[in-house]
Write a structure and sequence with these properties.
The chain starts with a strand and ends in a 9-residue tail after the last helix. The protein contains 14 helices and 13 strands. It is about 40% helix and about 15% strand.
Length: about 375
């Protein structure tokens, strides 16, 4: 089977979708059978893929100098050109987004990380706002398979997009290569409380800053709050709050953290907090648990599923409850240690190889295609 994966989200800064694409591709290469081949498709006018991708077993990289926005417009709005024109014959074409890659004959597979764009279009921008809400239902209906990253997203796809369960493939993320196996780290001194994620409305940064304002007033020797992630234009209001009392000097914005620095950022944290309104999965919570960092997360979306009994769950619209949960971990070393131990066990259950095998097995059961001509 020749499976093509749209690697474009991983071409530059790998945020959530880019990380998913990269790690799934790596696992598909690692677990390839003799009869399997993986094509990684990239396109950009400016950015080129890492040459090391070409050294992966059973992998061919197809890189086209076509602007991403132009190709997306043609694919989303015209369903042209078919991917085979750019890549050569393939059996299955896997999109990392909810909209399918157009094909001549190959099976189309889409990936839905969450449906927040459908429920809250006001939180979206650019192509997502322009195309996803209006097209996702048709694309989900026509796709041979819909890949999802959590049981929460699977339920949403069944209910809101009316996709039957036998066409949904649950491929949960695993631990990234830069972590390897779960491993405890020494307790950081003095450490900080960490948020990891793009600064955008869905991440609920405003409530986190409200909670931190409460903590500044009542917790002696409160560690700093560190916000790590790229900032969308909507983040301006939050970043402005960091410049004036009571948050000035108490919260720092670290920006986007590249792979080479991520382990150090996590291991310096006493606690990770992720108060999102919704997460289709919540990779930062998994990454933190795998490094022994206690987690306080929202009780919405897939976060309860990812964290299990290892972390504390709070309502994302309750700043006081969020502050109380954070304070309880900071003030109680035994509680923090127990959460860290449970997190290591919880994180060990998530592997990219398992996700790759599930995807390949589901694709292998699709009807055979006519011989390529």
């Amino acid at each position: 089977m020749n499976l093509l994966l749209d690697y474009r989200p991983a071409l530059t800064r790998r945020t959530g979708v880019g990380e998913y694409a990269h790690e799934l591709a790596a696992a598909l290469s690692r677990t390839a059978r003799p009869e399997d081949h993986l094509t990684l498709f990239t396109s950009s006018w400016r950015d080129r893929p890492d040459p090391a991708l070409g050294d992966w077993p059973a992998v061919t990289v197809v890189d086209r100098r076509v602007p991403v926005r132009l190709l997306n417009w043609a694919w989303h709005r015209r369903q042209w050109p078919p991917i085979e024109w750019l890549s050569g014959p393939v059996d299955v074409a896997v999109s990392m987004h909810p909209l399918a890659l157009p094909t001549r004959a190959a099976h189309r597979v889409i990936t839905i990380h969450d449906l927040d764009f459908l429920r809250h279009p006001e939180r979206t921008t650019a192509e997502i706002r322009r195309d996803y809400s209006g097209l996702v239902r048709d694309h989900a209906k026509q796709a041979a398979l819909v890949v999802v990253n959590s049981a929460d997203t699977a339920r949403a796809v069944q209910v809101e997009l009316q996709v039957p369960s036998d066409r949904i493939v649950l491929c949960r993320p695993g631990l990234p290569g830069w972590i390897g196996q779960p491993a405890a780290r020494p307790e950081p001194v003095p450490g900080y409380v960490l948020f990891v994620g793009t600064l955008e409305p869905r991440k609920n940064i405003g409530t986190l800053l409200d909670a931190w304002t409460l903590l500044v007033k009542r917790v002696p020797n409160l560690p700093k709050l560190r916000l790590a992630g790229a900032a969308r234009p909507e983040a301006g209001t939050w970043l402005a709050r960091l410049q004036v009392p009571p948050l000035a000097g108490r919260v720092e914005y670290a920006g986007y953290i590249p792979d080479a620095s991520r382990r150090a950022v996590y291991t310096g944290a006493r606690l990770l907090v992720l108060p999102s309104w919704h997460e289709g999965f919540g990779l930062p919570a998994l990454e933190a648990m795998a490094l022994g960092v206690p987690v306080v997360v929202s009780n919405r979306g897939a976060l309860p599923e990812v964290v299990g009994d290892a972390g504390l769950l709070v309502s994302p619209d309750d700043a006081r409850g969020l502050a109380a949960a954070i304070e309880s971990v900071l003030r109680d070393p035994l509680k923090a240690s127990a959460m860290s131990a449970r997190g290591l066990v919880q994180a060990a259950g998530f592997t990219w190889d398992a996700a790759a095998v599930r995807l390949r097995d589901a694709c292998s059961r699709l009807p055979a295609l006519p011989a390529h001509t």
